[in-house]
Amino acid sequence: MTPLGERLRELRSQKGVTLKNMADELGVSSAYLSALEHGHRGKPGWLMLQRIIAYFNLIWDDAEDLVALARSSDPRVTVDTSGLSPEATRLANLLAANIADLPPEALESLIEALEAELREAAIKQE
């Protein structure tokens, strides 16, 4: 399941609607919506994302949060390290080879560490 899929499932549960009802309202198949929730489809396009936001009546921060989740929910990621350092290539390959075996706590720890490094680099660039 992708971060977007997890959030969609939470929103459906809060609204008390079935996958089929939501799919009918959005004009898509329930199979598509199920695949989107489970990460078997790529992230939705901008128009579909806007329809989902409207369906749940999301505004401001909630809408922005859903867009951000969609950006980080592509289940088929490609990392091109050509032209980067050997460390970048090593990191990409190490993660690709081992991500399925990492426990949730380790994944969260890696995410937090990377986000902290990115924030620090952004501050230094200002």
List the helices and strands and how they pair.
Blueprint: H1 3-15, H2 19-26, H3 30-38, H4 46-55, H5 60-71, H6 86-98, H7 104-125
Helix pairs in contact: 2-3
Account of the 3D structure:
By secondary structure, the chain is mainly alpha-helical. It folds into 2 domains: 3-71, 434 Repressor (Amino-terminal Domain); 86-125. The protein has 7 helices and no strands. The chain has helices spanning 3-15, 19-26, 30-38, 46-55, 60-71, 86-98, 104-125. Helix 2 (19-26) crosses helix 3 (30-38). The longest helix is centred in the last third of the chain and has 22 residues, at 104-125. The protein is globular, with a radius of gyration of 17 Å. The mean pLDDT is 93.
* Major β-sheet profile: none
Order of helices and strands: HHHHHHH
CATH architecture of the largest domain: Orthogonal Bundle
Shape: globular
Structure at a glance:
The protein has 126 residues and is mainly α.
What are the main properties of this structure?
7 helices; 2 domains; 434 Repressor (Amino-terminal Domain); 126 residues; mainly alpha
